Amino acid sequence: MNVHYITASSFKALFFIYTGSLPPDERSVSEGGSPIGVILMSLTKEYTDNKKTAVKDLSLTFYKGQITALLGVNGAGKTTIISMLTGLYPPSSGTIIINGRDIHTDLAAIRMEMGVCPQYDVLFDTLTVREHLLFYGSVKAPLWTKKQLHQALEDVDLSHHQFKHVGALSGGMKRRLSIAISFIGNSKTVVLDEPTSGVDPCSRRRIWDILLKYRADCTLIFTTHHLDEAEVLSDRIAILQQGQLRCCGPPSYLKETYGQGYSLTLIKKSLTCEINVVILLSYITSNAGMTWSI
Ligand SMILES: Nc1ncnc2c1ncn2[C@@H]1O[C@H](COP(=O)(O)OP(=O)(O)OP(=O)(O)O)[C@@H](O)[C@H]1O
Question: Which fold has domain 8-113+188-260?
């Protein structure tokens, strides 16, 4: 099956032929015609040692030029999906198509165009920031120029630290270096497993800026536990629970469809106090209303 240049709408038709029904994410959202980058097709992963089914019959589409967040609690199966996407673990059944190539038959070619930022940094304490980029660059993109190296350092705001040993960097700096490595050689598909884990709010913001900057040229997939992060960064959010897709769509769509709003519980001292609170809340947001009062 060749799905190299098909659009979201043509994929719908294609998928219909194969399964007889639309995948859950396609049912819930209409796309703006972005080309498809990655397709998970009925993907299942069962770990043989503990017989745990970490991902169950998951069908999901990721688009080029978009950021998609895989959002879920611990154990939802996010890292397992990333591991299958990068070819670390083979699926138990189902397959993944990346830029028209099947992971079962074209893994080497897929890896040439893929960048990965693992959950835990794979860095060497005794090498400098610059040496890391040169090392990974020589493996991934031998024709990488000095200009591109400097651009990468600048993009992740590490130019001033390029001659420092990684052992002397903060957690946030290490994370930014790992992200820079994942984008070496203009990777067409980039997967990032919790790119902001363990970083302070300032570094988190910087990482968001980096991802938004690189979004245009690739299919970008990242995992997170944080709804706020998924909302700020993503074009689409896929919510996972126990290895299954619960819903998927643009943040605004999910909010509109599933959002319940917020509830505020107050202990009042007097009736006048209650009236003042209602006035104050309706001043802050016209949607606020009192559900009950005792
Ligand atoms: N190598 C493994 N062998 C056996 N079971 C595993 C393995 N890796 C993960 N699991 C199990 O698969 C399930 C999904 O784990 P996974 O790490 O994919 O979830 P996650 O959403 O990434 O969690 P977290 O947010 O904690 O990283 C869990 O129940 C986990 O215990």
Answer: Rossmann fold (3.40.50)
